[in-house]
C-alpha cells in the first residue's frame, strides 16, 4: 500500500471514529426525550415537567462545551474523546441504577457535562485531517451523528422503556458510550498541526475581535436549531398521543426521519463544496425550514394525514444546516481557536434546544401542537437576513 493510500485510509478512519463517538453521545443526550411517553403515563408528569427532565442532559452539555473546547485546544482530541465517552457511560449506568427521578435528572445532567467533550473534539478531528475541498462533505457526514443518534434512540429507547422500564432503557446509551471510549482510546490520532510556539500571530489571534462574522453565525444557528429541537423532542409523543400511533410505529417513523436527515446533512455539505461557500446554502435551507414547519402547523390544525409526511420533510430540512455552520466556524477560527469557537457554537445551540423542551412543552399544553409548530416556523424566517454570506465568502 502506498503512502498516499495509507494517508487516505487514516483520514477516513478518523472520520468513522469521530462519527461513532459522537453518535453514541447523541443517543445519551437525546435519548431522554424518548422517555417522555413513559414519564407522562406511568410517572404522572405533565409534558412541561417531562420535557424539563428530558432536557437535563442538554443543560449539562451547555455549561461544559466551552471548557471542553479549551481543553481540546490545549491537549488534543484523543484524550478528550476517550475520557469524555468514559464519563458519559459512568453517568448513564448511574442513572439506570437510580429509582428517584431527581437522581436520574442529576445523572443525566452530569452525563451531559461529559458528553460536551465529543462535540468540539470530533469536529476538530475531522477538520484537521481533511483538506478544504472535502470538508463540507466529511463534516456533513460527521454531523449525521445527531440525527443518527436521535434515530437510534427512537428505535430502541421508547420500546424498552415501555416494556422494561426507564432503568433498562438507560442501559442502552451506557453500553454504547463504554464501547466508544475503548474505540477512541485505541484508534484516535490527533491531526497534524504546527506547535503553538511556531504558529504565526494571525493564526493565534482571537477570531472574535474585529469581526462579527462568528457571532452572526452563532445567532443564525440558534434560530435554526429551535424547529429541529421541537421535532426531536415532541414528534414521538405527538404521533402517539395526537395521531394514535403505537410506540413501535412512532419510533420507526422518527428513526426514518432522522436517517433521511442524516442524508440531508451530507448533501448540504457536498453542496457547499461545489458552490465554494459554507453559508450561502444556509439561506435556502432556512427558507425551506420555515415553509415546511408552517405547512406542518397548518396540516396538523386541519387534522390532515399529510401532517405526518410533512413532519418527516421538516425533520430532514431543519437539520441540514448544522454541518455547514460547524465547518465554517472551524475554518474561520483556525486550529488554535476552533475548540473554543465550536464550543461556543454548540453552547448556544444546545442552550436553545434545552430551553425549547420545557417552553414548547408548556405551549403545547396550553395551545396544542399546531400553534407550537407555527411559532417554530417563524424563527428560520428571522435567520435568513442574518446569514453573513458576503463577509464569510471574502
TrEMBL record:
Transmembrane segments: 12-39, 51-72, 79-97, 103-127, 139-160, 166-189, 213-239, 245-263, 284-302, 308-330, 351-384
Membrane topology annotation: Multi-pass membrane protein
Subcellular location field: Cell membrane
InterPro entries per UniProt: MFS, MFS-Transporter, MFS_dom, MFS_trans_sf
Record keywords: Membrane, Transmembrane, Transmembrane helix
Main location: membrane
Annotated ranges, domain Major facilitator superfamily (MFS) profile: 1-394
Annotated PANTHER family: BLL3282 PROTEIN
Protein name: MFS transporter
Native source organism of the sequence: Mycobacterium deserti
Amino acid at each position: 500500500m502506498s503512502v498516499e493510500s495509507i494517508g487516505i485510509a487514516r483520514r477516513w478512519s478518523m472520520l468513522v471514529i469521530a462519527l461513532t463517538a459522537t453518535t453514541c453521545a447523541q443517543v445519551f443526550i437525546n435519548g431522554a426525550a424518548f422517555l417522555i411517553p413513559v414519564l407522562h403515563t406511568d410517572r404522572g408528569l405533565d409534558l412541561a415537567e417531562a420535557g424539563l427532565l428530558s432536557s437535563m442532559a442538554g443543560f449539562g452539555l451547555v455549561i461544559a462545551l466551552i471548557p471542553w473546547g479549551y481543553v481540546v485546544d490545549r491537549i488534543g482530541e484523543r484524550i478528550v474523546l476517550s475520557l469524555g465517552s468514559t464519563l458519559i457511560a459512568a453517568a448513564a449506568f448511574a442513572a439506570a441504577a437510580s429509582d428517584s427521578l431527581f437522581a436520574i435528572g442529576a445523572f443525566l445532567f452530569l452525563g451531559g457535562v461529559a458528553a460536551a467533550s465529543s462535540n468540539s473534539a470530533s469536529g476538530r478531528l475531522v477538520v484537521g485531517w481533511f483538506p478544504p475541498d472535502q470538508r463540507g462533505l466529511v463534516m456533513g457526514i460527521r454531523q449525521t451523528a445527531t440525527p443518527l443518534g436521535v434515530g437510534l434512540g427512537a428505535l430502541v429507547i421508547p420500546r424498552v422503556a415501555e416494556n422494561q422500564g426507564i432503568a433498562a432503557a438507560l442501559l442502552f446509551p451506557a453500553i454504547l458510550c463504554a464501547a466508544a471510549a475503548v474505540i477512541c482510546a485505541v484508534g484516535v490520532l490527533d491531526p497534524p498541526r504546527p506547535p503553538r510556539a511556531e504558529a504565526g500571530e494571525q493564526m493565534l489571534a482571537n477570531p472574535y475581535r474585529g469581526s462579527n462574522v462568528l457571532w452572526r453565525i452563532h445567532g443564525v444557528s440558534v434560530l435554526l436549531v429551535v424547529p429541529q429541537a421541537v421535532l426531536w423532542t415532541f414528534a414521538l409523543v405527538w404521533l402517539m398521543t395526537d395521531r394514535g400511533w403505537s410506540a413501535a410505529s412512532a419510533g420507526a417513523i422518527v428513526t426514518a426521519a432522522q436517517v433521511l436527515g442524516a442524508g440531508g446533512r451530507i448533501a448540504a455539505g457536498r453542496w457547499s463544496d461545489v458552490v465554494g461557500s459554507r453559508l450561502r446554502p444556509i439561506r435556502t435551507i432556512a427558507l425551506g425550514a420555515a415553509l415546511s414547519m408552517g405547512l406542518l402547523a397548518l396540516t396538523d390544525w386541519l387534522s390532515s394525514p399529510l401532517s405526518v409526511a410533512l413532519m418527516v420533510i421538516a425533520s430532514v430540512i431543519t437539520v441540514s444546516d448544522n454541518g455547514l455552520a460547524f465547518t465554517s466556524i472551524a475554518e474561520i477560527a483556525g486550529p488554535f481557536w476552533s475548540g473554543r469557537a465550536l464550543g461556543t457554537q454548540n453552547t448556544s445551540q444546545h442552550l436553545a434546544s434545552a430551553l425549547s423542551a420545557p417552553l414548547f412543552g408548556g405551549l403545547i399544553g396550553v395551545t396544542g401542537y399546531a400553534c407550537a409548530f407555527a411559532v417554530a416556523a417563524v424563527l428560520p424566517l428571522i435567520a435568513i437576513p442574518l446569514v453573513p454570506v458576503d463577509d464569510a465568502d471574502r
